[in-house]
Amino acid sequence: MTEKKAHDLVIIGGGPGGLAAGLYASRARMDTLLLEKAAYGGQMLTTFFIENYPGFPEGIAGFELADLMKKQTDLYGLQIQTAEVRGVVKEGNIFDIDTIEGTVRSRAVIVSTGADPDKLGVPGEERLAGRGVSYCATCDGALYRERTVAVVGGGDSAIEEALFLTRFADRIHVIHRRDELRATPISRERAFANEKIVFEWNTVLKEILGEDEVTGLLLENVKTGQTRKLAAAGVFIYVGITPQSSFLEDMVEKNEGGYIKTDLTMSSSVPGLFAIGDVRAESVRQVASAVGDGVTAAIYAYKYLVE
Ligand code: NAP
């Protein structure tokens, strides 16, 4: 698909921020192309239920919200292509976006590539990935009906997904390295009230056990140094996320975590290149805030092109 003509705007990544930017840009009649490497929706697709997106008082399934956002962009003719971006260079006023399908050219770019779940890096994690080790309860939770599973982490992802797993599993052990959760109060209260959830405080996962599938976990109490085995058929790991910004190498300013620095207009250090959602520094990492970032970036991208 190597193109000679430059688009007005290319959006890299089709999560909520990218789709919101695409909606505003296509309504502004900008020639806009959204590139997505897999399926549009981003982390909404791995979130079973979203209760804090305004306008849906009953909550909404993540995939359904993604679908509605995509349908709304279709109404205004947003072009979407499946292609993984490998790199971006700016020559003069034009960005050359290198994808595995060829080069795409654009006058402005919005990066909305989000963040991927971190690995814990313990023995057994890589070997048993997809065979009891998972990073997505929404995708794999139903495999553990009436079984015992574990969740590692104490943030919103870990606690929300532990609550989701109570639909299937008999018992969910939440393994957290401290004795206090990072998750928001409402999630904490629900988890503490749920009889299926057991907290393993001050505990870390040392090794994931099993030949062909997960059969147990080796745990260590960080206060006493004592280790013990816990029988479990699955382990869901939620120990944070890493921004997907490495394809930009050092063309743009990032913080030490690899998050792209922006100003309040979502502009990066490179004029015409904007960053939104989980990939940008200081993001509060919510669907609603990603949407807001997307709208801001689309409006300022329009101004950038006009000016
Ligand atoms: P997070 O907030 O960074 O939490 C990661 C958790 O993993 C923390 O409890 C951390 O422990 C633990 N951890 C990190 N490294 C570890 C290690 N090596 N060994 C053991 N434990 C480790 O990540 P997240 O839960 O994925 O959330 C990411 C962002 O998305 C957050 O800003 C969150 O608020 C947001 N989010 C929001 C919602 C919602 O609003 N509904 C849902 C999901 C996520 P410590 O606490 O000790 O650091």
What does this structure look like?
- By secondary structure, the chain is of the alpha/beta class.
- About 20% of the residues lie in helices and about 30% in strands.
- The protein folds into two domains: about 5-115 and about 240-305, 3-Layer(bba) Sandwich (FAD/NAD(P)-binding domain), CATH 3.50.50; about 120-235, FAD/NAD(P)-binding domain (3-Layer(bba) Sandwich), CATH 3.50.50.
- It contains six helices and 19 strands.
- The strands form five sheets. Strands 1, 2, 5, 6, 7, 8 and 19 form a seven-stranded mixed beta sheet that branches. Strands 10-17-11-12-13 form a five-stranded parallel beta sheet.
- β6 and β7 form a beta hairpin.
- The protein starts with 5 loop residues before the first strand and ends with a helix.
- Bound molecules: NADP nicotinamide-adenine-dinucleotide phosphate (NAP).
- NADP nicotinamide-adenine-dinucleotide phosphate (NAP) binds near residues 120, 239, 241 and 285.
For the structure shown, list the relevant keywords.
single chain; 307 residues; alpha/beta; FAD/NAD(P)-binding domain; 2 domains; 7-stranded mixed sheet; 5-stranded parallel sheet; 6 helices; 19 strands; 22% helix; 29% strand; elongated; binds NADP nicotinamide-adenine-dinucleotide phosphate
Oligomer: single chain
Name given to the CATH architecture of the largest domain:
3-Layer(bba) Sandwich
Mean pLDDT: 96
Number of strands: 19
The largest sheet, given as strand count, sense and whether it forms a barrel, is: 7 strands, mixed
Q: How much helix, percentage-wise, in residues?
A: 10-25%
Integer-rounded radius of gyration: 21 Å
Bulk shape: elongated
Topology as H/E string?
EHEEEHEEEEEEHEHEHEEEEEEEH
Level-1 CATH class name of the largest domain = Alpha Beta
User: Helix segment count?
Assistant: 6
